[in-house]
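In the design runs reported in the main text, the only information available to the sequence generator was the tokenized backbone. The following block is the verbatim input for one such run; it is reproduced so that readers can re-run the procedure and compare outputs position by position.
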């Protein structure tokens, strides 16, 4: 499971960096979003164990071992980061539409390449 998660994070980071280096502003925005998703997955994976089909709450009567619980702080941070990421992506899209309307192009530097 850890290998799959680390491969997913690597693919998201590499795709995000590749899109950040593109000349169009929409591709840059999508690259920033992919990098945000990769960071969210990384923070979420730092919560300790990645266990499948484990109960979220232990039943009573058993001795409590704190090592069996996952840390809830990374989960709360990722939830907050997802909400902030959606808001900033929406803001970037509005700024993109305004810049395209003012300049007439969607290139990062504001100029079409010469042919």
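Verbatim output:
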């Amino acid at each position: 499971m850890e290998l799959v998660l680390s491969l997913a994070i690597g693919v998201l980071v590499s795709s995000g960096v590749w899109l950040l280096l593109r000349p169009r502003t929409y591709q840059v925005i999508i690259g920033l979003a992919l990098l945000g998703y990769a960071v969210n997955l990384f923070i979420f994976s730092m919560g300790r164990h990645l266990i499948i089909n484990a109960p979220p709450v232990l039943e009573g009567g058993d001795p409590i071992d704190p090592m069996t619980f996952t840390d809830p702080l990374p989960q709360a941070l990722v939830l907050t980061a997802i909400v902030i990421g959606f808001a900033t992506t929406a803001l970037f899209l509005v700024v993109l539409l305004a810049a395209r309307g003012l300049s007439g192009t969607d290139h990062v530097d504001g100029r079409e390449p010469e042919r």
